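Possible regression after last week's pipeline update?

I re-ran a chain I had predicted before the update to compare outputs. Posting the input and the new output here so someone can diff against the archived version. Not blocking, just want to make sure nothing changed silently.
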Amino acid sequence: MSTVEMNGQVYWKNIKGNLVPDEMVKEIDKERDCLVRNFVEQAIEKQKEVRAFKTQVFDDIGAFIQLSAEKYDVQLGGRKGNVTLVSYDGEYKLMIAVQDRLTFDERIQAAKQLIDECLHEWSADARPELRSVINDAFQVDKEGNLNTARILSLRRVEIQDERWTKAMQAISDSIQIVDSKDYVRFYKRDENGNYQQISLDMARV
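New output (post-update):
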């Protein structure tokens, strides 16, 4: 609440935490407070509903996947992976996706050293595009984090050099999973037979 009552006097708590007598607060400020508070409190309740819905979806789908596996005498354990379920008539589809957030441990420095040695030796013959790709891959963002996608893309570059091979192995060995996030997406087929996502993001509704 923005207001408190003390000794029969109503006060409004301002942004600095100071108490301002009711009669000194402008009406437009009171109306703004009411408007903002009303919608934010509704948003908090909606967030709770969405969170509860998400929990129900994952619990029920997890139970269904387990039930389906038991038909083949299989017991599933651990985290469930990506899965797509479609309604019988194909009109509706939902997708569960598990996305891991990756980082690299100290072995990434060994990989960078090996790659630098390769570039130094190949300096005369190395294509500028390859050098640019490698340099870009090891650039850090504002928080000092490496771009995992760019570094992992180096493993697709096929170079027959023992040091390059060791560098790519060092990259693979240095990968660490920081955490994982579960996503669920819902789709409805349109009149053209294409699945359109049912967005729960207010910016996309």
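Follow-up from reviewer: compared with the archived run. Strands lie at 3-6, 9-13, 19-21, 83-86, 92-104, 175-189, 195-197. Marking as no regression found.
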